[in-house]
Amino acid sequence: MTPNPIRSTSLPGLRRSAGLKLILICGLVLLMAIPAMFIGAISYERSTAADEVTRKVSQRYGGQQTVIGPILSIPYETDLSDGTIQTGHYILYPDTGEAAFKSVDVETKMQSLYKVPVYSASGVLKANFKDPLSQLEKAGVTLNRQDARFLISISDVRGLKQDIKLRGPKGQLAQFEPAIEEGEARPGTPAVYGQNSEGIRFMAKAAIPARQHQGMPGFGQWLSVQAAPFFTETGDMTVSADLHLSGAQMLSIPPFAKSTQVSLTSNWPDPGFQGEFTPTEREITEDGFSASWSMPYLSRGIRGQGRAEDVMRGLTSNMVRVKFVNTDNPYQTVNRALKYSVLFIGLVFLAYFLFEIIVGTPVHPAQYILIGLAQAIFYLLLLAFAERIGFVPAFAIAALLTIFITAGYAGAVFGGRSYIWKAGSVFAIVYGLLFVLMRMEDFALMVGALASFTAIAATMYLTRDVDWYGSGKIAAAEG
């Protein structure tokens, strides 16, 4: 049976041409991108507000924590060619280091509509120095071993649940303290001293407030403990520290030893393994995950010992990072859906156009605009409900409401209840396809491309007998 051509429309230029009508519909599809852009702006604004709330909540629990150490820092002096004396800190990294967090308990904190993953982590930091006194003999500068200190860096010490104590090779304990006080020269920056005419030493380079930590790796405060009581005459030295701290969203550990091992176990089922090192082993279940990393000496690109200004820069450029991903964040998924808005509005318009061609009942461009606005409102409904109840139920509600009004409108336009079910089935497939695209990130482009190709191929088949110019068949019908 030959499809009935369009016989009438309120636009005289389209009376004889289904082709012109299709071109106009394509233009209307692009026009519908404007309301989609406004909804995208609303989503961005809400996402920005959510990020600000996340930042404020994270600060209460310590934020994204980065843990460094233990490492060994020894003050040094060296004579310069101009007769002045340079002082600074000489760093000795452990030969092997281990950061083992056996318990990272994550829970979600709510503020208004927004959810923020925060954690409480318990772990052990361990460092093994192979004959450190022998290694320090190769320093090439005059070291003050009596003032040597073990250092640990914590991004935000407000997240500490209890004080940190260093355990030595003989079981001795010493409590960490802030590494330096306000006004002292910071580690990692050498100070230069000279002598006046009376032979009195003076500082030629002003001290910089320590709490700025300029030039020092880490994102927070350095803690220290005297190292001299832990030294032995010869042999290896192993020290460790128990760590209990809270944080939010992410936990990061750089390779603080020549060879560093990291292990982490958590109850969070959605980890994001970021950073420059990938897990050597990992297991993810519905009850949580466990993972381990190995960071060998050569891969970190930093020498095992040297002046702080030479061997500490770049320490945090390569790290193990574990992000506790909040899968309930609706904004990223809604924004992804908006990227496909023109495609799916176009598919709905195309379905209406095919009904128009096959049934022979004209649809006014204003009616296409109403249909397009209904599709745009779908994304607004999706955003509004997703903030409250999550993406999946929000998508179901928004899609059902939109399918209901667009299918019902099709029944009214084309004059029959059967078209309600036909249009509803087509639109359900369209929104089902959109949902699949949102859940299949890796194959979204392939699925979208195949769906678009199928839609165009079906349109070409169904309109193969249409008189696009509207001349011969229309004229014959009118004659």
In terms of topology, how is this protein built?
Layout: H1 18-31, H2 33-61, E1 65-79, E2 85-92, E3 96-111, E4 114-129, H3 132-136, E5 142-143, E6 149-154, E7 165-167, E8 173-175, E9 177-178, E10 191-195, E11 201-203, E12 221-226, E13 237-248, E14 250-253, E15 259-266, E16 271-275, E17 281-285, E18 288-295, H4 297-300, E19 305-307, H5 308-311, E20 320-324, H6 330-339, H7 341-359, H8 365-389, H9 391-414, H10 417-439, H11 444-462, H12 472-478
Parallel strand pairs: 1-14, 3-15
Antiparallel strand pairs: 1-2, 1-5, 1-6, 2-10, 2-19, 3-4, 4-13, 6-12, 7-8, 7-13, 9-12, 10-11, 14-20, 15-18, 16-20, 17-18
Helix pairs in contact: 1-7, 1-8, 2-6, 2-8, 6-8, 7-8, 7-10, 7-11, 8-9, 9-10, 10-11
